[in-house]
Amino acid sequence: MTNFDGIIDILDIVRIINQIMGNSELNEDEFTAADFNADGIVDILDIIQIVNYILANLKKSTTFLWLQLLVLHIHFRFFSI
Ligand SMILES: [Ca+2]
Asked: Which fold has domain 10-79?
């Protein structure tokens, strides 16, 4: 489970996105933590599951709205032609 600072939050997602986009590298422990579904790959599916995990713990807040925008952005970035 993502545990860069002991809390799963937006910063973890940003770091994973940077890893996927090739902007930064996760170390071995971070990679293991980021591989949320434990399939040996850190990708968009892990981000979606992490976001869902966060949303399960957050309902109404500005963070929730921020995450919705982030998810829309991710979908556009990865799934648009
Ligand atoms: Ca994975």
From this structure: Type 1 dockerin domain (1.10.1330)
